[in-house]
Amino acid sequence: MASTSTLHVWPIPAFTDNYIWCIRDSQSAVLVDPGDAKPAIQYLQQERLHLTGILITHYHADHIGGLKDLVAWGQSQGLSFPIYGPAAEDIPERTHALLEGDQVEFAQPAIHLRVLEVPGHTLGHIAYVADSAHNSGQPSKLFCGDTLFASGCGRLFEGTPSQMSSSLAKFLALPADTLVYCTHEYTLSNIRFAMAVEPSNQDLQQWSKTAHDLRQNNQPTVPTTIGHERRVNPFMRCDQEPVMIAAENAIGKKLNTSAEVLAVVRAWKDRF
Ligand SMILES: [Zn+2]
Question: How many whole angstroms from 253 Cα to the centroid of ligand 1?
């Protein structure tokens, strides 16, 4: 296969701690959640990439704020491209409304994705999964917006703990080597909280060192993997004894389900 078709996923930093993910080959690109058009256009121009589409996970301004300017810029370049987003949310520039199980396919860059509905952070939030089997055997990729973060999860602005618990369960069902492309660099503060929940988690202690080194060298801590999150992320471990016990101790009563544990851990993090 010629190198032109090799797929890369590149983080374009935006605002103070957002990443706009750029799914690209050597000539074309798809952007995920361009909250700001400026750094995205700068990257596309610098790399001489042809923008072929945009994927949106949810309607918050730091994820869709760049759409208007990207559409205008595209028109000035003679480009028109689809803008995919959740059907249940109000996104004026969206051209294709997506529901659970819908598929999105691009020829350039060559990628096939399917849609998961993952309510919690917002009610209409969706995620995109590029399954290994549909993408030439490359490791699966998850574009999860603000639902899952490295060692953390999104705030429950609209959904319930039970909805978030079901959404994270969909992620836990993905292969362990699935790459997780979340949209914020919140990792170090998430690790601080995770260590308060699970001070004896050795994987977490090791990860804390690695993540601090990465940030010290100005490197992103993402993508991580689903298997990694299963080991170090309290929100992906609500069925694991150390997290259950920590949550029970925090609230002083017995908890019976993962959703109940998640409710306690999320509220604890909100105050942390
Ligand atoms: Zn958000």
Answer: 31
Instruction: Find all residues with CB under 8 Å of 162, minimum gap 6, and list them.
Output: 259, 263
Ligand 1 centre and the CA of 4: distance in Å?
33
Comparing 252 with 5, the larger pLDDT belongs to 252
Closest CA to 191 of 214, 172, 173: 214
Q: How far is the CA of 122 from the centre of ligand 1 (A)?
A: 7
Closest to 212 (Cα-Cα) out of 204, 224, 221, 203 = 221
The pTM score is 0.97
> What is the whole-number distance in angstroms between the Cα of residue 5 and the centre of ligand 1?
32
Distance 245 CA to ligand 1 centre (A): 29
The model's pLDDT over 151-208, given as tens digits with 9 standing for 90+, comes to 999 999 999 999 999 999 999 999 999 999 999 999 999 999 999 999 999 999 999 9
Helix axes 258-271, 187-197, angle to 10 degrees: 120
CA of 34 to the centre of ligand 1 (A): 12
CA of residue 137 to ligand 1 center, whole Å: 31
Residues 6+ apart with CB under 8 A from 200: 242
Q: For the sheet containing 8-14, what is the strand order?
A: 8-14, 18-24, 28-32, 50-55, 83-86, 96-98
Cα 235 to averaged position of ligand 1 atoms, centre (Å): 17
Residue 104, token pair as written in the block: 């999105």
Give the model's confidence band at 4: pLDDT under 50 very low, under 70 low, under 90 confident, else very high: low
Q: Is the pLDDT of residue 9 over 60?
A: yes
